[in-house]
Amino acid sequence: MPEQHTNALVHETSPYLLQHAHNPVDWHPWGPDALNKARAENKLIFLSIGYAACHWCHVMEHESFEDDEVAAILNEQFISIKVDREERPDLDEIYMSATMLYTGGHGGWPMSVFLSPDLKPVYAGTYFPKHDMHGRPGFKTLLNFISQAWREKGDEMTQQSERVVDAVREIHAGGTSGEPLTREQVSKAANRILQAYDSQLGGITSGSNKFPPSLSMDLLLREFANTGDHTYLSDVELTLETMGNGGIYDQLGGGIHRYSTDPKWLVPHFEKMLYDQGLVSSIYLDGYQAIKHADLKKLCEQKARGIFEYVLRDLRSPDGGFYSSEDADSEGLEGKFFIWTIEEIKDVLGERDGHLFASHYGVSAVGNWLHPGDAHVPHGPKNILNVVRSIETMAKLEQLSVDEITRVIEEGRKKLLEVREKRVRPGLDDKVLSGWNGLMITALAKGAAVLDEPSYGEAAARAAQFVLDTMVSDGRLLATYGRGKARLTAYITDYAFLIEGLLGLYEWSGDVRWLNGAARLTDTAIEFYGDESGGAFYFTASDHEDLLVRSKTATDGAIPSGNSVMLMNLQKLAILLDRTHYRDRAEKIIAAFADTADRTPFQHERLLAGIGAYHDGFQEIAIVGPPDDPRTQQLLRTVYNSYLPNKILARLAPDDTETPKQVPLLANRTLVVGAPAAYLCQNYVCQQPVTSPKDLRQQLTGIDT
Question: Hey, what CATH topology would domain 183-331+428-616 get?
């Protein structure tokens, strides 16, 4: 469409908002100008919330927002506001709750909400086609109906919306304080989640979709560590394997797609979000530590490394921060960048190697996916790469060695990736979000430690320094950075995720500046987000603009809640810095949400993990020794080779006399008879320091070998 129109979004920094800057719709960003205009003209606000990688957002834009007829109705009858949900999760959270109330529990993006001038939702939905179809009103029909109803029955619509407003306020007001959940209640909650897992294909099916269940797998692995019950481990193993072999994982370029549209993990919604890369790579690292089966352990390592390679290659900015997402669409078609025909593969790899590659990845002449653009793209049946035959099975079928099959597959991946890189790439959302960067920093720091890959830690440190240098103003964290500018006061999730990442960097490097940074951010979070009367943290700061409700929840969604991550952060910081008020804060979070976590465990997995850690106690590990001494490294490897979900690790060089003054956990820790040593304490009981990896492993796990 010729860019004959320009609206107020042209001055924004969000790639999503800029996508709409030349729509004929007179879009406004959320802010006083638009809100005051709605009040002055007594017009309904049409609030459209989406994000750059959202496929159906693009569809609705093309069908409706680029259409002059639709734009004329919106411009005459409404004040239209466009919001990037990733920049304004506060608005997204509140009005998504309203949308789900109006739709009977169906939410998603694009989110289409009609607000009275005082910001109360009078109607809401998600995607609307331009024209009436399948018994559903089209967007034009809806706009005309809503605008007429507002003119004739505006007061009545506002009054009716009060019930929705009351419900939204109740949803976001936080739980009722009560007694903390017992350890037994946490185990029962974990078991309820376990029962929902697909015993054949792994994961949890939601409708026809499967999302990477990172948070629930974390809870199940923790329950396995606590009980020794392999049932919990088995379902995680199955999920990590089927998800990693499925089409939801990008078998060529690494990285995980947003979700699978089928129970078999085959057909993904192709967008790639930074937060998924962080959460999924992290759970693969946990699996790598917990799983003993060699092939599965290798798969976990490969998938974690593949995600890291993708992020460092395609989502890292020149400044070191990480971009938000890549689109599902390219050249107007969802998934076109990622799919293959059998002919394309054989053209690149040759007949023999192409056959072997296709057999491994389930590529056939008939295809495994009917691409929505097939009628317009004359390339024949399309295939999503997914592992259908193992290397070992292939070797037997083809009467070739495992080494030969492995060589063909690995060389084939490299060659096809080179070809794919020449295609038109999906759109990139290049804004940097402080919170999502925190999730990726956490995963990379863990990867550096667990896989003994310093480059991951160096990338994490560079990203953390970028955020601290560029996205902090007057001691306050900012939410988003783009076009050379950081803006918007951060949310509690931003603080929580970044603090978690800094703690991970401290554990990997032993550099106390990361610990000090985590403590400073925690104190700021307490000051501006803490609820002094009811405990826990609000989603927005005390000086944030007034909205329909000041949300305070511990509900996990695609990302964990700020309160649940702060629960774990506070417990770790309380031990590392010997600050009892942090532990008191943690206990208030548990009390504030005990009832809701017990009733709805599927939405509180990370909170339940933090409550479990509270009851189980933390393994406090101090390792003293020269960093470059192989004996020190062996002690560290012993820690990282074990799955220890509730560990706290602090490191000390023998000649460092300053760090113990800041980190009481390291006080009075010395070499033992001149050798690097490990000190382990738990629940106020300390064991004898040890110098051998075998003795340390026995102390940590109870296993002698």
Answer: Glycosyltransferase (1.50.10)
